[in-house]
Task: inverse folding
């Protein structure tokens, strides 16, 4: 089954404790992206990757890191999480950057 | 700067009637537009798209209209069904750029 998976689905952590949210797709898509969803703000792009070893900033990259060492995986790293990073995070993938994107189920992160 | 705007946070419609969801954009370089549907606890799923060379695209009960001069697009759902109740996001992309820009979303409620 074609899908995008994210782990964990729910995470509660404390300020400053490094964490990684994993994302994996099995569709051989070149493009992957991370979004955060906040009330009244819709989906805002954090980082995206056009291909392996190619990443770029989205609209709200501050406080996040990503890496794309292999095509299927695109982890999101929060080196020192802060409460304003409490949000619902979605990973997505597509054939190309402006194409229909397939989304993962989301990760709800709470930073205390 | 919100380049894609959905000015109606919510819309309530009776089953069987038409639902019209609206979206405005400011970036004249956008040339591809998409609508996504999101149920609670799930990731967004692609619904329908339209290229800037067209002004209308239909897929079953769903039709998207694009008015480039007004920088406005709309999604028509007819007839509306209770299962259509969800959050609807419009998104836009610019050819050659690896990103989608999303609106804030509109919560559609279809009453039986």
Result:
């Amino acid at each position: 089954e074609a899908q995008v998976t994210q782990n964990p689905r729910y995470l509660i952590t404390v300020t400053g404790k490094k964490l990684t949210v994993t994302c994996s797709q099995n569709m051989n898509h070149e493009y992957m992206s991370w979004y955060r969803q906040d009330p009244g703000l819709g989906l805002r792009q954090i980082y995206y990757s056009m291909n392996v070893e190619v990443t770029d900033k989205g609209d709200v990259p501050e406080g996040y890191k990503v890496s794309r060492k292999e095509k299927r995986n695109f982890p999101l790293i929060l080196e020192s999480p802060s409460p304003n990073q409490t949000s619902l995070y979605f990973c997505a993938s597509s054939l190309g950057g402006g194409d229909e994107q397939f989304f993962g189920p989301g990760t709800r992160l709470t930073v205390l | 700067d919100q380049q894609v705007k959905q000015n109606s946070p919510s819309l309530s419609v009776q089953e069987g009637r038409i639902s019209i969801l609206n979206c405005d954009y400011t970036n004249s370089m956008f040339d591809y537009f998409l609508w996504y549907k999101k149920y609670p606890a799930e990731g967004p799923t692609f619904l329908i798209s339209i290229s800037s060379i067209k002004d209308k695209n239909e897929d079953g009960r769903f039709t998207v209209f694009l008015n480039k001069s007004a920088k406005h697009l709309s999604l028509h759902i007819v007839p509306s069904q209770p299962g259509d109740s969800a959050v609807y996001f419009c998104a836009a992309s610019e050819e050659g750029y690896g990103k989608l820009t999303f609106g804030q979303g509109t919560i559609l409620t279809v009453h039986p």
Summary: The mean pLDDT of chain A is 94. Residues 15 and 54 of chain A are 29 Å apart (CA to CA). Chain A touches chain B through 27 residues (CB under 8 Å).
